[in-house]
Structure formats: structure tokens, C-alpha cells
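Onboarding guide, step 5: your first structure request.
Type a short instruction followed by the sequence, for example:

Predict the 3D structure of this protein.
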Amino acid sequence: MSTYDSTADTLKHALRVGALMGQPIKELVDRSTRHDLSKTEPPEVDIFNEFTPKLKGSTYGSDEYKRFLAAMGEGLTHHYAHNRHHPEHFGAQGINGMTLVDLIEMLADWKAATERHDDGDLAHSLEIQRERFGISDQLMRILRNTADHFGWSPPGP
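The system replies with C-alpha cells like these:
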């Protein structure tokens, strides 16, 4: 009969997992207070002052929306370069260059962006993003599961 009691090892393991989980939690909290602050300073602020109202009135993914993005030029390029929650930040790697923390901020950003559009819908937006960024079926399922878990969107197929 064994005299080993796993309780101490299990509790030590649980504490270690909690400490490791604290790292991405801290980063998420830090990012939540810094999200998109680059939009409040040059060279971004003037571009976003001009185009945010235009984007709000457009349909996400439409030709009009794409023309607005193209016209944002340097301001949008600067924004992508300084904000890693955008797949464009990672160049050719796109989403494949991101971390789980990046993905969480990205999904929250996409949800909040849909709320700024008159006809915004996260489920529809995710389908557009799938095509735009080459999102795999597995990652798409995870993004939908996460949106559903938090009540951000009805569950997808």
C-alpha cells in the first residue's frame, strides 16, 4: 500500500499554473488600458478623425469600406505597425505570427468595431475576416467559441 499523498504536489502544481496564468492576465490588463492609444496622437489622430465617421456609416468589408481603408494611408500603416492586435502588424505571417493574448485583444477589438457600425455583426465580420486573413477552420471555431462564451455573438455553424 502506498503512503504517498499527492495533495501537496497537486497544490504546488496548481499554484504554479496560477502564477503562469498571471503573465497573460497581466498583459491583457495592461493592453486593456493602452488599447488604440496610438490613434490619439500624430500621425494617426488626424486620419482617424476624418475616417472614423465615414467607416461607421459604411458596411464592413464593402467596396466603400475598403476604399476608406486604402485612403487612410500612412495613418493606418502606422497604426498597424504599433498595435500587435492587428494581423497586419506581422506582415506576411499575419495571424500566424500572433500570440493568444494578441488573438484575445483582436477578437475584442473586432467585437467593439462591429458595435460602431450601423449594421455591425460579429458573426458576419468573422466570415469576412476568415477570407481576409486566411483564418483556419480550427482557429475560426475557437474564435466563435470564445465570442459565444462571452455572449458577444450567437454561435456559428
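Each response can be followed by summary notes, for example: The radius of gyration is 20 Å.
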